[in-house]
Inverse folding.
């Protein structure tokens, strides 16, 4: 397990900035992630583009896109584009909505340390915590979306929100009902809004 060098970062970024199938993109990111280890994948500065590429692959898979790619770094935004079977291009800005204050890198680092010392990696996760996480979804969605609203995209791109909060299905209906109110402020800014949650792509919502 190791962090990526500057040369490796540049190589991966360049590879992912070329048009690839969603499956090839997902496989590439998985290979890099496995080589790095989960802790560094989420903690090392400058690797956010790898997570954007994973989202591009997931979005493309759900949309049955033929090709996806990261937007070249020199263009700054949006994050990726997906090409449809009829050669239409969807340009997507993405953002993650998570439990406020959660640091996944720290979580995976602790798990790796427990594994190295032979300590059990199983963590107690009571039902009360599932409910607590579900209750934070509206706030998490609103906070994530608000970080993108003020960046003046002028309707040139769509927004993909990756909702990374799990509750084992006990608040499924309530969370789905909370999606539309949360994304409403983004509709005047983006061409459309999507939410990726638990292996399902919700949307699009349009103004």
């Amino acid at each position: 397990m190791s962090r990526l060098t500057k040369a490796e970062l540049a190589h991966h970024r360049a590879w992912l900035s070329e048009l690839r199938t969603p499956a090839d993109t997902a496989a590439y990111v998985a290979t890099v992630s496995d080589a790095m280890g989960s802790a560094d994948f989420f903690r090392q500065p400058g690797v956010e583009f790898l997570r954007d590429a994973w989202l591009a692959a997931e979005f493309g898979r759900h949309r049955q896109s033929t090709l996806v790619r990261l937007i070249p770094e020199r263009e700054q935004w949006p994050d990726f584009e997906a090409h449809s079977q009829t050669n239409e291009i969807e340009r997507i800005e993405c953002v993650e909505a998570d439990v406020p204050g959660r640091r996944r890198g720290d979580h995976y680092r602790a798990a790796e340390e427990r594994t190295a010392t032979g300590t059990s990696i199983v963590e107690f996760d009571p039902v009360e915590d599932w409910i607590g996480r579900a209750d934070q979804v509206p706030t998490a969605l609103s906070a994530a979306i608000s970080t993108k609203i003020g960046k003046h995209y002028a309707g040139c791109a769509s927004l993909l929100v990756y909702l990374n909060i799990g509750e084992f299905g006990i608040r499924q209906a309530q969370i789905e009902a909370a999606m539309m109110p949360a994304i409403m402020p983004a509709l005047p800014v983006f061409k459309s809004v999507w939410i990726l949650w638990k292996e399902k792509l919700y949307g699009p919502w349009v103004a």
In short: DSSP finds eight helices and six strands in the chain. The mean pLDDT is 87. The longest helix spans residues 48-63.
